[in-house]
Amino acid sequence: MAGEIIKTKGVVLAIHPWSRTSHIVTWLTPDHGCVATLVKGAVRPKSAFLGQYDLFYTCDLLYYARARAELHALRETTPANMRTSLRGRWRETALAGYAAGLMKDLAPANGESKDWFDFFSTFLDRLASAPGASAHQASSEPPRNAPLAMLKELVWLEMGLLKLAGWAPDFSGMDMAASHTPFAIDLGRCGEGARTVRLAPGTVRALTRPDARSHGLETVEDAVRFLGVFLAYHIDTQPDVRRSLVTMLASSLPPACSR
User: What pLDDT score does 23 carry?
Assistant: First the structure.
């Protein structure tokens, strides 16, 4: 691979300044995992890269793979899916940023990353095509069900990531007729354990079918709390970041107005 020109697709996970005119762009690719590229002269007035990439774009790209280096040289990139409807939608953007951070930390390298690339692309497309997008962009007044919808998207994201990572909770032993059933966080399945919570049938349905319209806000919030505990136990995540995200998604006002 070293010394080759690599042609692939990538979703932009992060953009960082390298110098006054250059960027480091981190991509999630389907065949090489997370790849960091140096984009020289990215913000110069006549740069060929202007407008060709941004956060959450899916792009066709060419980069020069350097030997024994984590930073490769980007040669060319063309946007294939810009997801422009995400711009100006603060809940969706915050959730997409959280998902990008998880991908950067957890996605495997090389060809094993294809399922992760496909999953992340699907998730971003879900956010970009959420119902009421144009109305949300045109007005500062959010839809009345926006917090519920975004918390459902968070459950969909985290349950999908747990499945990809091989840590999905097993609810097959759940007694759906009981008011609550013990679930051992440390074992990942129903029953008593060193770290046990009690789950209601509605919470399990919200976890396994987050898109269902019947879930109320309280039930989805229970599912979000369960996932917070489960993720903290099984995966090395940043609970403070997630806690701030949940507070933001549940708010009826943009961050600047809620202070």
Answer: 97
